[in-house]
Structures are given as structure tokens and as C-alpha cells.
Amino acid sequence: MNLARLQSALRDRKFDAWLFYDHHHRDPIAYRVLGLREDVMVTRRWFYLVPASGEPQKLVHRIEAGRLDSLPGSKRSYSSWQELQQSLKEMVAPYRNLAMQYSPQNAIPYVGLVDAGTVELVRSFEVNVLSSGDLVSEFEAVLSAEQIASHFTARDAVDRITAEAFKTIGRRVHSGGTHEFEMAQWILEAFRSENLISHDSPIVAVNGHSGDPHFEPLPESSTRMKEGDFVLLDIWAKTKEPDACYYDITWTGFIGKNPSDRHIEVFNIVRDARKLGSQTVEQAFAAGRKIAGWEVDKAVRDFITSKGYGDKFIHRTGHNISSAIHGNGANIDNLETKDEREILPNTCFSIEPGIYLPEFGVRSEVNVITRPGRAEVTGRQQEELVLI
């Protein structure tokens, strides 16, 4: 744990303290931010209070008295619930505004990890419990130089694999055939050859399956590919280094030379929406203007709605990307949640609008990395349907 950095972040964001709490490993964020081991038994509640200035304080059960000994600060112990409540009241009394892993109305489920009863208990001591959302982004989503470098390494490999996957589909369709599950397995083997790893299998989706944003290609439900089919590839992977950052893209193509007018129309709308999303971020960072995830989603969603497909865009515009494919930074979202978290410098996220129809779906996905004063799309950007 970097106490100086934690306290500096609290002062910058006008918090008096950050109150961490756990019971039975319910809050993995606390363990990562504080640098605590996650493989120890935790059967009793503990609290750790980091003030904006001064010495941290611990509150632990007597039968697990050593759980926070790796952290700096004074220690209180309890056995009874009365002791716990009295000690916690004394700990938080000097502070007005406390950050906790809490999200108003659970708007950001990634952050809303403290149970409602504990929030009620802390508030009963006449302190304000506020969301730690932007603090979590700073400590969980801001990437190191090494993580950013790993993202670009993964980019180079995944972009190659994606291009070759389309070519392989074409060769196989015209010489014996293939289906969705086989191509997903081909991509996974390509990952192994490139020393990449992925938490889940890629999405290979044909025709109506591409209209299902999280279609999972399985042997028993895979469609065999043929001339005239619409194909969606959603591919994400990272290098094997510790804390490497994912690269995550979606491209679409058509097996043949003559996609339909509807294919082209929908693809062009989604492509232009994707460009608008990345440009919205780029312009804000170039101007030095703070921007939240919901603002980018709104711009993209309003555009697709203006084209008559708003009800077919059924998910957020993008998600934070870190060492987890869905990280704990700001999501590009004004649909599933109103993500008011600031998009911070040195974070990565996807821009991936989609339009999903019964007969086919189009999603076009790029990754954006922000830096102080600028933002950039990190990989290849699809401009037209791939003709397979």
C-alpha cells in the first residue's frame, strides 16, 4: 500500500477519509488497493480507515487480530457487536465525508460492494458515506507504462489474428466448410501460438447469432458457414505478464462479394457512431476538459437514435479495460447505468456501439487509451465490411 499516494488522492478529491471494510472476502478492491493477501481466512469483520492526513486506524476481531498487521496504523480490537459499533463510531467521529465502496442506488455495481446495512450503520454515526468510485478508478484503472506497453503488444498480435481469421474462414468455406465453434477454437490456438491468454473464448457469430451480443459458440449450437453469410468476430486477449492489459476488438464481414444494402447501411451507421465516440473523448482531452463515461455514451446513442435504430442498441457503448477485460474504471455508459465517473488519464476502455436485428447484428469495437492532454485509438479501425 502506498499511504502517501492514498492520502494525496483523498485530499485532491475532498474526502476526509477512506473507510475500507470486509467480511468473508466480499470486497476484492480493498485487498488490491491495500496490498493485502487474498488467500487468508477472513471470518470476522474488519475495518481500515485511511484519513486524508494523519495515522490510519484498524478495527479487527480478537480471534483474527493479526489480519491487518501488514498495514500501518493503530489498532483497536473487538469481540462483541457492541464493542464493534462503539469502536467504529469513535474511529469515524472526526471525519465528515467518508469514501466507501458504495454506489448510490447501485448505479456502478463494480463499486457497490459494501452491504446496505453497513452503510446504514456508518451513517448512523452522523457522517456522510460517499462513493469511492473515482478513487477506485485511480487505483484500479490507471495503467502503468508497462501495462500500456503490454496492451500494444497484445494489439499487434490480435490484429494479426483477426485478419488471418477472416482469411481462414474464406479458405475453409470454399474447401470443405467450417462452423462457429471450430473458428473460435482456431482463434484460441492462435492465442497460444502468440503467447496470449484470455479469460473467455472469443465470439464467432454468423447471421442471427451476430444479433446476440454475448453469443457463445458451442459445438451443439454452432452454425455452419456458407456463401452469403454475415460474420462477427469479437476477440480479446492479453500477454502473460503479471497485470498485463487486455486488447479487445470486434470486426464484421461478409462471405462473398455482394453484401446487402441493409448490411452496408447498418455497418456504416455503427462505424460512424464508433468514430463519434472516440472523437468525443479525443476532443475533450485535447481541450483539457473533464469528461465522464455517460457523456460519451450519450453522444453515440443520440447519433444511432437519430438514424432510427436507438431501440436496437441494447448495451452500453463501452467498458473499462485493464488487467481484467471489464475493469474498474469509468464505463462508457448512459444506458445500463449513468456512469458519472471521470475518464482519467492513462486509462483504457472500449468504444463498441452495436445494432442488433433478428437476421444479423453489427458491432464495431476499438480501444482508446487516454494520456494527459490527449487520447488515441490504439489499433486498426474498420472502415468497411470485410469481404471474405
Describe the 3D structure.
The chain has 388 residues and is α+β, with helices and mostly antiparallel strands. The protein has 2 domains: 138 residues, Creatinase/prolidase N-terminal domain (Creatine Amidinohydrolase, Chain A, domain 1, 3-Layer(aba) Sandwich); 243 residues, Creatinase/methionine aminopeptidase superfamily (Creatine Amidinohydrolase). The chain is built from 9 helices and 17 strands. The strands form 4 sheets. A 6-stranded mixed β-sheet has the order 4-3-2-1-5-6. Strands 7, 8, 9, 10 and 17 form a 5-stranded mixed β-sheet that branches. Helix 6 crosses helix 7 and helix 8 runs antiparallel to helix 9. The chain is elongated. It starts with a helix and ends with a strand. The model has no long low-confidence stretch (mean pLDDT 96).
H/E topology pattern: HEHEEEHEHEHHHEEEEHHEEEEEEE
Radius of gyration: 24 Å
What is the general shape? elongated
Strand order of the largest sheet: 4-3-2-1-5-6
Helix content class: 25-40%
Count of individual beta strands: 17
How many distinct helices? Answer: 9
Q: List unreliable stretches of 5+ residues.
A: none
Main CATH class of the largest domain: Alpha Beta
Report the CATH topology name of the largest domain. Answer: Creatine Amidinohydrolase
| Architecture (CATH level 2) name of the largest domain | Alpha-Beta Complex
In CATH, the homologous superfamily of the largest domain goes by the name Creatinase/methionine aminopeptidase superfamily
- Name the average pLDDT: 96
Distance between the termini: 51 Å
Overall SS class: alpha+beta
Main sheet, how many strands, which sense, barrel? 6 strands, mixed
